[in-house]
From TrEMBL:
Reactions catalysed: Couples ATP hydrolysis with the unwinding of duplex DNA by translocating in the 3'-5' direction
Interval of the full protein contained in this chain: 1 to 517 of 719
Gene Ontology molecular function: helicase activity
Assigned keywords, A-Z: ATP-binding, DNA damage, DNA recombination, DNA repair, DNA-binding, Helicase, Hydrolase, Isomerase, Metal-binding, Nucleotide-binding, Zinc
Organism whose genome encodes this protein: Mucilaginibacter calamicampi
Cofactor entry: Mg(2+); Zn(2+)
Superkingdom field: Bacteria
Keyword hit for Secreted: no
Protein name in UniProt: DNA helicase RecQ
Family the entry assigns: Belongs to the helicase family. RecQ subfamily.
EC number(s) reported in the record: 5.6.2.4
Domain Helicase ATP-binding positions: 24-194
Ranges where the Helicase C-terminal domain occurs: 215-361
Length: 517
């Protein structure tokens, strides 16, 4: 049977999607593969179809026991013999399963990573005695500290290749930036792997960021216009999900909370009600969403700043699975970023702290962007995109600009005089000619000291951010970022290039959401 025939016969589809066909061909040729495909893109088929065609057992590692059962049920309905192994099964059930495996009656075996190596089951030894032809590792980013959903039990998979050196491994994920991808390949020890990255663009989702002021009132105004729609509101803390859900209820909205600290019955009840549209709004921590397949989520709101782009993009991706216009709304405040910065520091692990801070920095950059947000997101995942998407707040807002060359020159020369060794706060104090003791005496003697006294502090903050966003300045990585010049700075300093800055009131007014046409 060819892959095309199997696609038709077992799955009832006539065409492959994205790069499914090539991915499957690689597996059939015995190659290791890393697959990045957005949620709903069709990852499962990439290993399920080879499992059908290959003569032997496919082991599927998946972190979520609840999902395994669904997958196994639907495979069995399609006439593909699949089973899962987990700790809820009795020893008798395990025995029966082992018999079937020995008799080659099972094509796909699903299990959680911790089961594979648990000492009591000796499962790994048993599996080695079987004709294993493929190993699929779902949610592969869970193996990386650098991803946003690290699971320690996934680290056990690092030794897997040693047990099955010649079996092709396919790692799958919907969320991994360059660094996480590299980490996955290394940890799993994939041999000469082929990496497939499908387009991550979600054309039907519009992206909007607005400054967070009184977030509850802002949210009410947003929700008022979307009363009959289904949506998810992500909060940072468990406590705030419950408080917000009950405040929304008090305002007459249909909302429930979801977080990992709720008891299982409540979680299941709230989730069910949301899936069945009995509850319109789910107020949740990021614990909510993985594996949830609700097609008509019309908006995803982040009321607090997410920790990184990967998480943000995955969460916003839960909107609009049905392909209809949907919205991603983020309420941004620099204060949130400051709070997250404190959490990002990992005890005794400077390397990881550095990476977490860098990722947070990217999240802040995204929030303060003056250029197309979709382009930024896609480039973040190493995909190119045009300058104007026509469906993010930046692209949809006409901004009024003015000739800010002089302002830019003042800022750049201050940075230069301060030898590129100070952060934005200090540069602004310096520009404004602050009498504070914090400003060094030798700096107070410089000609540039106080040249920007006519501009207030919030405006300077905005201008500096904009100069960074447009590449006339750069902000160094790390805990105490300093402002530095770039290769674009010189032209401005020499008066060869004009700089147009955004008039401040346009930003103030940019407070409502723009709905896709
Ligand atoms: P992912 O794991 O990437 O989130 P799934 O594997 O669950 O996505 O696939 C999402 C949906 O797309 C499923 O309903 C699946 O049956 C369907 N699908 C997968 N491949 C194809 C295809 N080639 N043609 C049509 N539908 C497909
Ligand atoms: Zn855009």
């Amino acid at each position: 049977m060819t892959p095309n025939q199997a696609l038709q016969k077992y799955f009832g589809y006539s065409n492959f999607r994205h790069q499914q066909e090539e991915i499957i061909a690689h597996i059939l040729n015995g190659k290791d593969v890393l697959t990045l495909m957005p949620t709903g893109g069709g990852k499962s088929l990439c290993y399920q179809l080879p499992a059908v065609l290959l003569d032997g057992l496919t082991i599927v590692i998946s972190p979520l026991i609840a999902l395994m059962k669904d997958q196994v049920d639907s495979l069995n309905i399609n006439g593909i013999s699949a089973a899962f192994f987990n700790s809820s099964q009795t020893p008798d059930e395990h025995q029966q399963l082992f018999e079937k495996l020995k008799n080659n009656q099972i094509k796909l075996l699903y299990l959680a990573p911790e089961r594979l190596f648990s000492a009591d089951s000796k499962l790994i030894d048993f599996l080695q005695s079987l004709p294993v032809v493929q190993i699929a590792i779902d949610e592969a980013h869970c193996i990386s500290h650098w991803g946003h959903d690290f699971r320690p039990e996934y680290l056990m998979l690092a030794g897997l290749k040693k047990y099955f050196p010649s079996v092709p491994v396919i790692a799958l994920t919907a969320t991994a930036d360059k660094l996480t991808q590299k980490d996955i390949l290394e940890k799993l020890d994939l041999k000469d792997p082929a990496v497939f990255v499908s387009s991550f663009n979600r054309e039907n989702i519009s992206y909007t960021v607005v400054p967070k002021r009184n977030s509850f009132n802002q949210l009410l105004a947003f929700l008022d216009k979307r009363k009959d729609q289904s949506g998810i509101i992500y909060c940072l803390s468990r406590k705030s999900t419950e408080a917000l859900a009950s405040n929304l209820q008090a305002e007459g909205f249909s909302a429930e909370a979801y977080h990992a600290g709720l008891d299982n019955a409540t979680k299941a009840r709230n989730q069910e009600a949301f899936l069945r549209d009995e509850v319109k709004i789910m107020v949740a921590t990021i614990a909510f969403g993985m594996g949830i397949n609700k097609s008509n989520v019309r908006y995803v709101v982040h009321i607090d700043l997410p920790k990184n782009i990967e998480g943000y993009y995955q969460e916003t991706g839960r909107a609009g699975r049905d392909g209809l216009p949907s919205e991603a709304m983020l309420y941004y405040s620099p204060g949130d970023a400051q709070k997250l910065k404190e959490f990002a520091r990992v005890e005794n692990n400077p390397e990881q702290s550095r990476i977490m801070l860098k990722k947070l920095d990217d999240m802040v950059r995204y929030s303060e962007l003056q250029t197309c947000r979709r382009q930024f997101l896609l480039r973040y995942f190493a995909e190119d995109a045009p300058d104007n998407c026509g469906a993010c707040d930046v692209c949809l807002t006409e901004v009024e600009r003015f000739d800010g060359t002089l302002i830019a020159q003042k800022a750049l020369s201050a940075v230069s005089r301060l030898k590129e060794r100070f952060g934005a706060g200090y540069v602004i104090e310096f520009l404004r000619g602050s009498k504070s003791e914090k400003i060094r005496e030798e700096h107070k003697a410089l000609k540039t000291y106080g040249i920007g006294a006519d501009i207030n502090k919030p405006d300077w903050q905005r201008y500096l951010r904009e100069l960074v966003a447009t590449g006339y300045l750069q902000s160094s990585d790390g805990e105490y970022p300093v402002l530095q010049l770039t290769n674009k700075s010189e032209g401005v300093l020499k008066g060869l290039e004009k700089v147009y800055l955004i008039a401040s009131q346009t930003i103030e007014e940019r407070d409502d959401v723009i709905v896709l046409p």
